[in-house]
Design brief:
single chain; 133 residues; mainly alpha; Helix Hairpins; 6 helices; globular; binds magnesium ion
Length: 133
């Protein structure tokens, strides 16, 4: 994909997606709202940002443990085999969404800006990388 065609790609992706699938895709902005409502209803209040930063490290560590042991060279303990990678990734996302909410970050806008920038920056970069060939 050439730089500048990201919007076209997104449009094609949407048109190739069944309408029922589109309804099930939740934009990042809605996830931020869902987390905010959950925090207010269940979590009482947000942890302080630095606490959440530590929580993010903890959750990333849980993902790393699964990756190293299930997909990497470390052996996986029997007690870890029921751990769900998707759920641990969701834990990471939850804390990221908390940090975005409590710092007034529009993650949807940031995501869209970064994808445009990454597409422009990496238009040839990965194609020209012989390690990926
Ligand atoms: Mg976790």
């Amino acid at each position: 994909m050439k730089a500048g065609t990201w919007g076209t790609f997104k449009q094609q992706r949407m048109s190739n997606t069944k309408q029922s699938e589109v309804r099930n895709q939740v934009p990042v902005a809605e996830l931020q709202t869902e987390v905010d409502q959950w925090i207010n209803a269940v979590g009482v209040r947000y942890f302080e940002p630095l606490t959440n930063m530590a929580m993010l490290s903890e959750e990333v560590g849980e993902v790393a443990r699964i990756m190293a042991r299930r997909y990497g060279e470390q052996s996986e303990k029997e007690s870890d085999k029921a751990k769900d990678l998707g759920e641990e990734l969701a834990d990471v996302l939850f804390v990221v969404l908390c940090l975005a909410n409590q710092t007034g970050t529009d993650l949807q806008g940031a995501w869209e800006r970064r994808m445009v920038a990454k597409t422009a920056r990496d238009a040839q970069r990965h194609k020209d990388n012989p390690k990926l060939g």
